[in-house]
Amino acid sequence: MKVNPQLETMPMKLTEEQVRQYKTHGFARVERFFSEYETAALRHEIERLHAGGGFTNVATEGDGATASAKKINLQLYGLSAVSPLFRALPFEPKIAATAERLIGGPVLFHQDQCFLKPARSGTGTHWHQDNAYGVSCTDPDGGLAMWIAVHDATLANGALQVIPGRWREKFPHSRDPDSNHHIRCYPDEREAVACEVKAGGVVVFSYGTPHCTRGNATDKARAGVALHFMREDCAPPRLRDPEQCKFPYLTGPQAGDGTREYGVAVKGTWPREVRAVLAAVIAAAAEFQTQPAG
Ligand SMILES: O=C(O)CCC(=O)C(=O)O
Hints:
Layout: H1 16-25, E1 27-30, H2 36-51, E2 56-57, E3 74-77, H3 79-82, H4 84-88, H5 93-103, E4 107-117, E5 125-128, E6 143-149, E7 160-162, E8 174-175, E9 183-184, E10 193-195, E11 202-206, E12 211-213, E13 222-231, H6 237-240, H7 259-262, H8 270-290
Antiparallel strand pairs: 1-11, 2-3, 3-4, 4-13, 5-12, 6-11, 6-13, 7-10, 7-12, 8-9
Helix pairs in contact: 2-8
The protein binds 2-oxoglutaric acid.
């Protein structure tokens, strides 16, 4: 792959229609949020983290504890702690601008994770609202998830599904017996909408929007990265206290360049990190080609 620095990253703004859809239904699909180069970097980085053993199978044998040998739902929580690319990602202006456009500011970056479903054996993540988990927002309107399609997400490989228009309701949750730590709810699945999206596209949805994914029945792996954001006034006090909180502000007067949270300046490094990932892939391929056969 030849890298054209001009095309590596791509600014992006939501359309008014996408904003309206989010505000009306609690979710919106945005195709081509990331450029081809950014998407390739995301995919290669996930492959590197997977090859390095960073993922855990969270699927269980229906008892919420015993790891399943047949059903695989690989999760890596805390991407920014293990990857300079993912650490740089939330600081990218189009991410912070999207979050602020949808939930208002100041915006705090809350958490990130990846779900990877291997070919054939990949299993889904049951219905839940992100706001039903421990560190929740006082108002679901102040919490935003951005689900990034690392591979094309289709119905067949476990695209995200959402229940539109119900994000302000609190669905009762119970422990998910098919996962070692998740919780789940039971919305009326007849209301579900599947959010198929091409690699590099995203689905933005409220912390209150019930969502799930299904298994991967295809012969290729599919991964999705979820970034979570909160508006400051809806975040628990612990997260708002700079002394206690290691979550970076992305917008507003407390927004920095990441030095406070990570010890190094991170803001603005996304294009460089995209380049670095792609350059490493190209170098590895070149080395492979120069090796003698046999
Ligand atoms: O990608 C998946 O399988 C699950 C995504 C999800 O449920 C989430 O990000 O909360």
